[in-house]
Amino acid sequence: MTDRKTLERRLQALASVGVSKTNGRTARSIGPNSLLRRLLVELDITIMPRRLTVETDKGRAASFLVANSRLIRIESMVGGGTDVASDLRSNDAELNARLQTQFRALLEGATEITTLTDPVVEGVDPKAAGPSARALAEAWGLSLEVPDRAPVEILDAFLTAVKDDVVAWLKAGGSGAGEPDKLDELTAFVEARSEVEGEAPDRGRWSFLSLRRAATASDITVSARYGDATVYLSVPRDRLTAVADAWRAAILG
Amino acid sequence: MAILKNLEVLRLGHPGVEAVAYLDLGSGTVLGKTSAINQPQEEFDALSATASGLIGGATGETDEAVRLGPMDALIIRRSPVSPSEAVCVVCAPDADVLSVLNHVTAALDANG
């Protein structure tokens, strides 16, 4: 469901109503180009029209309009803003090089960036064809693939991010903590789940599943797996979006 | 069916929603559907099977399920009045899943 026609239809149908503001995500530099790559990953995962705001720990900031994993417009930026989608029609290579210069200037000397996304109600043409995050990454010699990190490291980052929301948590085959009755429920859930998943085929690199056992239950059970590591959580249902955002942030690195 | 009208309103009025289907979990039948594009029936049949598996079928104990994937998010909500039926929503991977769930619940409640 990700072909261009689908995405255009999706944007046409959905661009008229706002969505809830997501939490800001902070990323620290873990090596050369890691923040530049992280920014491109943020572009890549943005499907619906959104305003992406970036702030660095050096006090620089930028604002972009992003949709369909494409950079549509630079609203403000080191070196000035521009309508990227319009510029793209003239010269791809020249535009890519100029954007790289601007992005590198934005991130120069920074060791940390915070990104925030807000819905964009108007002003984004669903047919706008700015450069895709993947095209920029290729032009700039970067990869958007998830870094090869230890699954346990990713799950720990996830657990840390949601610690204030979690009622109880349990790692598959390992430790757990939280309210005793919720921990017992998680243990029973894991045992039942193991019987089902033992026969399941390869389910990909990661999975995130939340289940609510009764329509009136205030808590949900979340199963989050990365590679061969899985953690189970009991969290209030009204924190589902926050937990889902935290999961996306954790697997992005 | 009033529910189908409600689901159409949900799809058109809520950001991130790409397709909505109303399912009979017992027979695996797609009772109604609305989509931003003209998706083949086979895709909805596959969606029905996946949704049924996640929520435990017609007699399962799970009433809501949300599965996140790299390309989309799948949201399933069992009908409170007909537990063997459920609504399944496909939305963008960065959609506000809780907001969509609440809209689905309201649509089912309106169906009474």
Can you walk through the features of this model?
The complex is a heterodimer of chains A (253) and B (112). Helix content of chain A is 36%, strand content 25%. With 253 residues, chain A is of the alpha+beta class. In chain A, the strands form 2 sheets. Chain A has a 5-stranded antiparallel beta sheet with strand order 1-5-2-3-4, covered by helices on one side. In chain A, strands 7-6-10-9-8 form a 5-stranded antiparallel beta sheet, with helices on both faces. The longest helix of chain A is centred in the C-terminal third of the chain and has 18 residues, at 180-197. Chain A is elongated, with a radius of gyration of 20 Å. The two termini of chain A are 26 Å apart. Helices cover 38% and strands 29% of the residues of chain B. Chain B has a 5-stranded antiparallel beta sheet with strand order 2-1-5-4-3, with helices on both faces. The radius of gyration of chain B is 12 Å and the shape is globular. In chain B, 49% of the residues are buried. The A-B interface holds A 1-2, 5-6, 9-10, 12-15, 17-20, 22, 45-48, 50, 117, 119, 207-215, 217, 220, 237-238, 240-241, 244, 247-248 and B 11-19, 36-37, 39, 54, 61-68, 71-73, 78, 80, 90, 92-99, 101, 105.
Distance between the termini of chain A: 26 Å
The overall pLDDT average of chain B reads 84
Strand content of chain A: 15-25%
Helix content of chain B: 25-40%
Give the strand content of chain B: 25-35%
Give the helix/strand layout.
The complex is a heterodimer of chains A (253) and B (112).
Chain A: H1 4-14, E1 25-28, H2 34-44, E2 50-56, E3 61-67, E4 70-76, H3 84-88, H4 92-107, E5 112-119, H5 133-139, H6 151-161, E6 168-171, E7 176-178, H7 180-197, E8 206-212, E9 219-226, E10 229-236, H8 240-252
Antiparallel strand pairs in A: 1-5, 2-3, 2-5, 3-4, 6-7, 6-10, 8-9, 9-10
Chain B: H1 2-13, E1 17-24, E2 29-35, H2 41-55, E3 64-68, E4 73-78, E5 85-91, H3 97-111
Antiparallel strand pairs in B: 1-2, 1-5, 3-4, 4-5
Helix pairs in contact in B: 1-3
